[in-house]
Here is the input.
Amino acid sequence: MGELDVSQTLEKNRSFVDAVIEETGSDIRQCYQCGKCSGGCPGSFAMDYLPNQIIRMLMLGMVDEALKSKTIWVCMSCNTCTTRCVRDIDVAAVMDDLRKEAIRHGYMENAANVVACNNTFLWTVRSWGRLFDAGLLMIYNMKTSNPMKDMQFALPMMMRGKSPVIPIPHKIKGAKEVQKIFEKTKQEGK
Ligand code: SF4
Ligand code: SF4
Here is the structure.
């Protein structure tokens, strides 16, 4: 990251930061960088910036840096940061909002695996009304060009009766209703 003129950066991106505050109902300007959010975050080991650093970036108007970070895609929305925040900042909601904004801005370099997983998960639910875990695993592995990933667990799971030899998806009774939910959501552009 190069040198930044913080006052200009904040001025340029003030409206974005204000929109995040409005969307999440969390005044990130109240953050005093205690680090409690990051201290409890189970995904911090895989992040390029800690959650409190992302909040600090927003406070300084460093919007592009936050949107291009790996952190927002590593975040698994567990809400630990939100419950630990001493300033009532909903850090998890901020992460969620930043993901939406990253998609809107086309900053997808760090998002490929997450998008592949989400789309495959939703496809199984739309097709059968429920998650088809073996299908999710196989298709996700193919989409991410890693077809043999985790396959070492297949045989031990079959031997323990945790997985069928040939996994076949089964539709739930209300599968049509689930499909309607997907259609309605699409129509409403959500
Ligand atoms: S919601 Fe995200 S940022 Fe917050 S603790 Fe969980 S993984 Fe970390
Ligand atoms: S816990 Fe809250 S106040 Fe502390 S650094 Fe995180 S967001 Fe800021």
